Amino acid sequence: MTEMLSYDFMQRALLAAVLVGITAPAVGIYLVQRRQALMGDGMGHVAMTGVGLGFIFQTSPVWMAVLVCVLGAVTMELVRSRGNQRGDIALAMLFYGGMACGKLLVSMSAQAGAGSLESYLWGSILTVAPEDLVTIAVLGTVVIAVTVGLRRQLFAICQDEDFARVTGVPVRTLNLMLAVMAAVTVTVAMRVVGLLLVSALMVVPVVAAQQLTRSFAATQAASIALGVVVSLAGVTGSYQLNVPSGPAIVLLAIVVFAVFSVIAAPLARRRHRRGDTEQVPQVCDVRLPDQPGPIAGQTPGQIPGKTSSDATTPERRAGLAQ
């Protein structure tokens, strides 16, 4: 361990792993809540075009990928919000076109080499340069500030956009902001995890934490802690075994999910025997600012003017708490 820490590239890789381990689940928890777990995977495809443009123009592939990925995220959100029948086809074209264009541009660039694209696809601890670490730190700080600072508002739009709109939350703006933060997270994590696996780090720690937690705040905290642990362990393992860091991190996260799933089963049965399952977890730790409590006789989460049968169901309001 001491020998590993004596290398500058390993120090940078471990710092990057901590930042990525925090950032990816911080955004991923909202994507899981919205049933958009594969959104990060699609953005990884789009980011490939940015990497290729960075090689062509001999600029930073990370910053170019940020620009292209943000534009792709805004396009994806606008297509999603329209909800037309051709939306899935348009997104598929965007994803596959981004990957194909990226590969073509990389092959045409003067910087193309045997490992030039491989390190971006699967992650590599050797590719985290000092300037990359600064970029990851700056972008990661922005993502964490937004996802944690606007936790209540983002939770509201992920739970029920109609209810959030009625309460005065700027739904469209927050939707676009969340999409942009997811795009930035993809580019932040591509050096450590790789574009093809970044979605897994955004999702797996969250669903693993869900196995043992019963509230949104607890799930968010636990998923971030898991993200940091598996990222550090994966980078360390990749150094010891001389393998790409991305696959090592993701496989460790899946192992943690499997262990938590086994532990969660007897806990759930024990809660059922105690009758705890009859007590619906509170959305609670996420309440919109300046919002009054529920009107007498009105179910929490119910839109004013609608009957209780139209209100959001307890299961949906419980969200990640289950």
From TrEMBL:
Keyword Membrane attached: yes
Pfam families: ABC-3
Transmembrane segments: 12-31, 62-79, 91-113, 133-151, 163-182, 188-209, 221-241, 247-268
Region (Disordered): 274-322
Compositional bias segments (type: Basic and acidic residues): 313-322
Cell location: Cell membrane; Membrane
InterPro entries linked: ABC_BtuC-like (IPR037294), ABC_TroCD (IPR001626)
Record field: compositional bias (Polar residues): 299-312
Keywords noted in UniProt: Membrane, Transmembrane, Transmembrane helix, Transport
Topology with respect to the bilayer: Multi-pass membrane protein
Family: Belongs to the ABC-3 integral membrane protein family.
Protein name: Metal ABC transporter permease
